[in-house]
Amino acid sequence: MKKFFLLFTLACISLTACRTYEKINYIQDVKPGEESVIDNFSSIRIQPRDMISIVVSCRNPELSTLFNLPVVSYQAGSEFSETGLSQRLLGYVVSEEGTIDFPILGTIEVGGLSRKETADLIKGKIIDGNYIKDPVVTVQFLNFKVAVLGEVMNPGTYTFDGDKLTVLDALGMAKDLTIFGRRDRVFVIREQDGKRNIYQMDLRSVELFKSPAYYLKQNDVVYVEPNNVRAGQSTINENNVKSVSLWISIGSFLATIATLLVNVIR
To answer: Following DSSP, what letter does each residue of 75-134 receive, concatenated?
Structure first.
């Protein structure tokens, strides 16, 4: 009887452990070494209300200065003209029509373009206007940010200055999910073109890479849903602490009775 009880206990622990791995492991159905085509990637596109920096440089700094916005100094969120403070480059705010007002060149339509396409467009206009023969144009996002909320280690808003940000990158910036986060219920909330779309992803499946929200866009919100254990913890407050203590006492009492019965049977 003792051996049967021991084997039964070990079997229950083993099944529980396997079930736990199924809940928390990422990309469980992937086949190592198998290649797949990346078919839903596109560079981040400039959208209305984006803020971008555009820097023009060339061999003659005096010529390129005409096309660049000034650098301002700031401290604790305020801007100053004194030297010795932190500095940042002023940026262009994209209008609702997708345009910016660029020095000398005037109004330029950049909405829907990538960083490289914008740089090539401005470079071509500068050369065609015979302003500079050898311009180098650099374009960067100044306000690309995503919010990561829910069951992650460090929820918050994160900024990014590259051309490609995946949902895994965003979760990595937030120090990964907590043990209470549901890997099968990760949501991306996206507002675009006057519409709000919500995408659900399962981090445990290779189908994650096929989601239209796998590559994030400006102002996306990533939300990780808590599991039942975390949801149950939220119901514990000052009014039901006594009830929880009572159930713990009952569980301890039943465990003691079970131990006594096993000893008697043995």
So the answer is: ETTEEES-TTSEEEE--EEPPTTSEEEETTTEEEE-TT--HHHHHHHHHHHHHHTTS-SS
